[in-house]
Amino acid sequence: MSELITFRIRRFNPESGEEAYYEDFTFEPPNPEATLLDCINHIKWHIDGTLTYRMSCRSAICGSCAMRVNGGGQLVCNAQFQDYLDENGVVTIEPVGNMPVVKDLVTDFSDFWNKVHSVNPYVQYADEDAERSNDGEHRMDPTDFAKINEASTCILCGACYSECVSYEADRNFLGPAALAKAQRLVNDTRDETKQERLEALSEYGGMWDCAHCFACVQACPKPVNPLYRIIDLRREAHKEGFHDNNGSRHARGFVEIIEESGWLDEAKLPVKSVGSVSEFVADLLPMGVRMGLKNKYRPNPLHMIPGRHHPEIPKMEEVKTIIQKTRLDKEDETAEAEGEADHG
Amino acid sequence: MIQHDALIVGAGLAGQSAALAAIRNGARDVAILTKVHPVRSHSCAAQGGIAASLGNSAPDSTESHEFDTVKGGDYLSDQTAATILAENAPDTIYELEHMGVVFSRTEDGKIAQRPFGGHTSPRACYAADRTGHAVLHGLYEQVMKAGVKTYSEWYMLSLVIEERQCRGVVVMNIDTGEIETIRAKAVFFGTGGYGRIFQTTTNAFASTGDGAIIAYRAGIPLEDMEFMQFHPTGLYRHGILASEGARGEGAYLINGKGERFMERYAKERMELAPRDIVSRAEQMEIDEGRGGEEDGGAVYLDLRHLGGERIMERLPQIWQLAYDFLGVDMIKQPIPIQPTAHYSMGGIPTNTDGEVVDDQENSVVRGYYAAGECACVSTHGANRLGTNSLLEACVYGARTGRSIARYVSNGASEEGAEKALKDAQARAVEYVERVRAMDGPERTADIRTDMKHAMMHKCGVFREEKPLQELMGELQELRARFERASVMDRGRRFNTEILETIEMDHMLELTQVVAAGALARQESRGGHARRDYPQRDDQSWLKHTLAYRQEDGTPALRYKSVEIVKYEPQERKY
Questions:
Q1: Is the pLDDT of residue A335 over 50?
Q2: Strands B228-235, B252-254: parallel, antiparallel or unpaired by DSSP?
Q3: Residue B95 and residue A141: Cβ atoms within 8 Å?
Q4: Of B167, B247, B275, B280, which one is the catalytic site residue?
Q5: Burial class for A192, CB neighbours closer than 10 Å (0-12, 13-18, 19+)
Q6: Which value does ipTM take for this structure?
Q7: DSSP assignment of A212-259
Q8: Is any Cβ of chain B less than 8 angstroms from the Cβ of A63?
Q9: What is the DSSP code (8-state) at residue B291?
Q10: pLDDT > 70 fraction of chain B, expressed in percent and rounded
Q11: Is residue B324 within 8 Å of residue A79, measured between CB atoms?
């Protein structure tokens, strides 16, 4: 007989009129190598038939069984319970975050699908008939395939939305999976609407509203790495000249400021991001004051004066050389996008 | 009552192909209904490729594809169906590529192709080792674009056929638990297979054969249900698929003693012999004590000589699966594998336009269509070649979609049937309430475990009269136990326990059809291997089984002829 383990599961029955609650199921695992899904099935089939969740392929490809395990979004079919027990032999299972709960571990994916739908998630041709043609295949260089390879492994499981802080803060944010899909289509050499896509994706809620927290990269069960796909989008946007938005200005301003002094002079960044002093005064300054008054942050007065709080860097020429070299190497403004991601 | 011109049940490759083709050919009111979200359909789990004689890697021809398919099917294929499959393959792939499906590429930018079992040329077009996923998501992109009305997470309960005309279906909205009737001029089934009746299977939990059994209960026979394909490389004990693409890339099969045992069974094609032959070879190695792992129940898939770079480029998913489920790094170690229930060659009989036919003369049931794994047009005969399933789902799904468009545009009747539909709904409500109230001492899960074990051991890779007869009795007992099972969840909303119980009811009936067909067929052909009748017997058994449901629920077997056009049956050697 092996040791008993406990699954602490968040329960919610929409028909009971009761609030959600946690229930502990303590049982002997079906086998030592059992997956989390095997254990959850064991509970449903042998202890409590009312436990409700989605699952199907049990091989990490259908995307049905995303849940929150010990606080993080992931699939439950491809992970063994042994790796998730705490010191008391407990695993905590909750429904994925950032979605309304339907029943127990089943959530309502409506907004997730809306977001995916909203990026025009299909190859678009200038000539509509091209889509239905069977006149031989398009040629796609293996290096172009490589650019869409990772995004195309997405199984739309929603684990990334569960953990996305930007989506949590603002439901208008498209979110990691939809942006990964968008990246695939922006970089798909068959698609003939790259400019329109990049323009739309530069709007509010699009590629620039990701806070680069990396939670999606950690949650994603496949090699999509959604944040990196968002960075790919930003690179494309820079390359294609979509500069007229706060995100792009922020990224370029970041590099410009460093190029000037070698330091990130944070007092200068907000102005560069919104585009002008007048916009800064009209838009960001009042918010900054309100945040200060409500103790959301404690401004360091020294940091508020541009150019005052950083000593001069002794080898400033080397900083400039690094930046110029990076530009020459990449020929686009990759450095900005990367610099910005690292900053986040 | 909900109403549509055409209702597509199931949203895998066949269903989505059918919906898109119907719309593109003029059908105006097409809806999809599926018990899981479309991208969760089991087509996503297909890995290695989709066949077409594009000739991108080596010269190829549709004739060669056609012949390989018929020979692979051990001459039980209806040959016109195989011809249509092969001839339509290249255009189908090009159309998918134009729709936006992401394929791996050759150095010169064409769709990459790899060798596969039983195919004499490298004709498996692939997207690394996630081809089904790539095609399914590509089709779903088009379904989103076309804005097809989709009933996602709705479960079909019954099919209404009146005077050999299909009238519609009764369905449950899983979220609310409400039962509704959908009247449709045309109903299409692309509901997939039923590998879940076996203990070890590559199939998803959803692959419970609902469509096939619902058709059967509506009076439609099921064809060739004894022909189950066992995939040679399911991960040991888990059954999770490790693509044949691995062998396509050059992987070896070795036994517990490290021998490349296929030398004894298919000297020429070795690991790339068709699946029925490879699975039998593995089972013989295991049965004769040359297996590996502690119980000797496994053989090994050995990729070490391919090198890490090639493995990670071409087979990244199965590397991850073997690592996650078995803790094996296949770059350094062989993976333990075993034969695993994978694909049903049989199903709902159709003609090559996807119309369901219900007798030995292939008479059409008006307004009822099927394609994909749930159907049997019989391209695959007694054994399907790898990569032909995705192809068949796309070719016949689309072909059937076009027939549906013609049918609904040409004044198909939608009058009448009110009473038949209402009665069917009342019966479905009563049935679901009966399930909801089940309150016996038995657990469905225990019955299911016993059923799967019995099927695997007595109706698996090898079959024999005595065990099959025992099995028939055991299945009756399991049916009786199921009548005493219980349901704990009495709620209406998202009641997955009721659904699992209904699926169990479906599977128990399916097992009887499969076992009865296997017991009756006294020969060995393709996926059906009898120890007591080891030879193929064209004199007596070159014919399709048709199983009809009798009043008492047991199957009555009849047979219909196989269509031989170009290729006379000959000895099958690899």
A1: no
A2: unpaired
A3: no
A4: B275
A5: middle
A6: 0.96
A7: ---HHHHH-SSTT-HHHHHHHHHHHHHHTT---SHHHHHHHHHHHHHH
A8: yes
A9: -
A10: 99
A11: yes
